[in-house]
Design brief:
Elements lengths: L1 H20 L3 H40 L11 H29 L8 H15 L8 H5 L1 H11 L4 H24 L14 H26 L6 H14 L1 H13 L3 H13 L1 H4 L12 H12 L5 H20 L6
Helix pairs in contact: 2-3, 2-4, 2-7, 3-4, 3-6, 8-9, 8-10, 8-11, 8-14, 9-13, 10-11, 11-14
Length: about 325
Amino acid sequence: MAVAYNRAPRVSTWLLMRRLRRRTAAEVAAAAAGVAATRAWAAACAFCAMVLVAWLAAFARALSWHGWSGFRSLSAAGLSSATARAGGYEAGLVPVLAAWAALLLLVPAGYAIAYRAATAAAAVLGALDFAPPSFVVTSWVAGFSSGLAQLSRSWNGVVLLVASLAAVFLLYRGALGAFQRIGQFSAGRTRRPAPVTRFVLALVVLLSAAWSGTVVWLAASHAPGDATSFGRQGGLVQGDYLLALGVAAMLAAGGRSTQARLLAVTPLAALLGYFAHDLPVPHDLVWSAGRAHLERAGAWWGGGSLWAALFVGFPLCLLGVYLAARVRPR
């Protein structure tokens, strides 16, 4: 009885402190509104940074048509032409970049690598000769895209190049700073799944990267065919390199730095579609049944294969890398 008598005040004190620490509904709503506003500001800064970095990459590609050795001899008319060409190309990418910015609103707190990946991907799309067809977001941002294209025609190429470099840095840092205020990534939330779980996670990431990279590359290179054939060819690339991707997934899942290894291997998997013709796989190393299944799965998206690659495949890769940070071997 003495033991129970001594514990009673402690329990009462604990209950009282818990009630005092409990937030009211107004406090919870205010905190949620603050997080939503911070996420919106971070996504807006990231969108502006992506638009500018895509323009910079497109401007550099337009200048490269004249040859880098002849850059100094370019006239003002040539620079203006490159600026207008880059602005028109950038306006076509605005729907894709706007959809990516919307996806950034859903990024888990503390996972800033999604912002870095989105900015880098915008630069890659700007460097490619990639003109995405219209989709549902295109009509939503049509006014902004046309206004941006008209505005860029009056810009001076050299002046805007210098200003854009500074603006990209400031907007990128602003997006990361705002996002990091939401909450830091908690390393204590890691789990210890079975090795087969880590292997499946790594394999899904690499397969998704290989398929998405192949589809985007075929669309950017204006390869013959439509989006359905691009998806099918992406599945064929998956099937041809299934053994290599499986070995890479096994190596990535075998150590304690699964996330770092996936970050190193995933870009290489995304480039498989580009090197597929130069690096043919021996027929004996191709699993025919698996290749056929992956081909059908790749063609399942039909005419939406390109959008699936941009808005499902690549975000799925980032989600897998994020989960890899939370799963560690025993």
